[in-house]
Write a structure and sequence with these properties.
Elements (H helix, E strand, L loop, with lengths): L6 H13 L4 H8 L3 H13 L13 H16 L4 H17 L1
Helix pairs in contact: 1-2, 1-3, 2-3
Amino acid sequence: MTQKYDKEFKRHAVQWAFESRKPASQVARDLGISQKKLYGWMAKYKEDPSTPFVRSGNLKTEAKILRDLERVHSSIGYLTPVEYERRYFQSGVSAILT
């Protein structure tokens, strides 16, 4: 089973890796985690320092808005243009083939 780390541990590890004079590989060994894991956390932090370690239960604001819009659209039966084309193009093709 894989070990789960909370946001604070990840943030501490990343800050230590960035601020210490030690190589990240040494920081990972000192913390007892793999280099790959630490480098992944560092990449996520560089990508978005304000909310680097979000999971499905804790979405970024933009992702929450999109999820809510998708739920509303699906509840009222709204089709996106791509969904509309797929649905009606496929039904047209099947009507021609039969």
